[in-house]
Predict the 3D structure of the following.
Amino acid sequence: MADPMRIRAQAQGDKAVVRVLMSHEMETGQRKDSAGKTIPAWFIQEVTASLNGSPVLTAQWGTAVSKNPFMQFTIRGAKAGDKVSVSWVDNRGDKRTDEATVA
Amino acid sequence: MRRGLLVRPGAWAMATLLAGAAAQAQKNTADGIAEYRKMLEDGNPADLFEAKGEALWKQKRGPKNASLESCDLGKGPGVVKGAFVELPRYFADTAKVQDLESRLVSCMQALQGFDGAAIAGTPFGRGEQDNVTALATYVAAASRGLRFSLPQGHPEERRLYEVGKRVFYFRGGPYDFSCASCHGEDGKRIRLQDLPNLTKNPGDGVGFAAWPAYRVSNGQMWGMQLRLNDCYRQQRFPYPGFGSEVTVALGVYMGVNAKGAESIAPAIKR
Amino acid sequence: MRRRMMLKRGAEVAAALAAAGLWPAGAHAAWAQQAFDAKGFAEALKALGARTPQESKDVTLTGPDIAENGAVVPVACACALPGVKRLVLLVDKNPNTLAAVFDVSDAIEPQFATRVKMAQTSNVYAVALMDDGQALFAQKEIKVTLGGCGG
């Protein structure tokens, strides 16, 4: 099971700014190891987020997103106490979901 | 260590341009780099290692199935906040001066039953050595914003300061480098990296006060032990042993020189 | 001059809407393989089914002028107009140009920030794919340079 994300969700007026740090290698598939073999691509392909259980965001990523990815987005109509959930799925089918409360 | 980076023709052209450019152009580049670094401050992947370290600190592990919560980092068993800015320091139970990482390994051995020598012999980024880095990140983060104040009350602490100074100026290896070759004067740099003068306090959040740090170029978390190991690699010296007296002595020398500097660890670096 | 070039390129590209079945986006679109494999700004946009893209001051792309290391370049994209369907980030000179695609719903602001890898100094694009079929973009050149010893 992958390492947990760090999610910070901060209320700003009637919105919540969400900042997420994910733990993932995001291997491009371009690199070679010391034996000369190509290291296979391994990267997050889909990211979704929801507010109190309702989906708000879907994103598709390629290998160009940096290792240990960072993402920031803003949810409308959110307030302190609301639950923000973020999920990702990678090209191997591994997944991770973490939750945070809007502060 | 392979860099494994793609050749960047644009970057070479840039470097040539910079080399011939007037001081004005170089100042703008420095501002540009400063802006880039500022943009990365929010959302430092070091946070991921800090979280992992905190979990490891509290988790019952090892043959003795115990947590590290009673580990004494110099301010009493279990006291984490403020410990980082007073390390390295002398510990009576091990009868030597220790830095953060070697002290964590001592606690992992004494409290949890891990084999300290085996951890020291494990390459960085693997196994328990990787956990030591995460723990070090957690402990350092707990002192973020505090100022360095290494104790020099014990004779061993003072001895190691002198040893550290000698080591700092010791020239060797095929290029006859010493630490001082790069870090012995003000105003030096390698390409676009400013080199802090470590013979004195180089300022808040600089040099000793900036490690552990997350390095974006390889996506790795580096503690001071790995930082020193890599310095020696670049000087073409043999690698110092993990937690060896040489590395701890250098930590004492740099840390005492940095007295009063604010720690920004865990930081983010190129 | 650039506009003429873009229009010409756009005409060549000429709306191939269902190319990868991506635009307008389905409720749960499969991963956009073709678009992510595309090389160059024009090819990637074509694979996303975008029309002739127009440069627009209503789309913003934020990023540093110079990145100390191409492995992590912070970029942000936003569109001030209503009716944004998707925000797309592209790095022209990367081996695979398309970096990220964000679907915009009514529940979120049309603005995102992330960090991308850049193989070399390159133009970076933020493209807003609109409900009405328009494709609006902003661009910025970000220089990538090698640093020193990592201190």
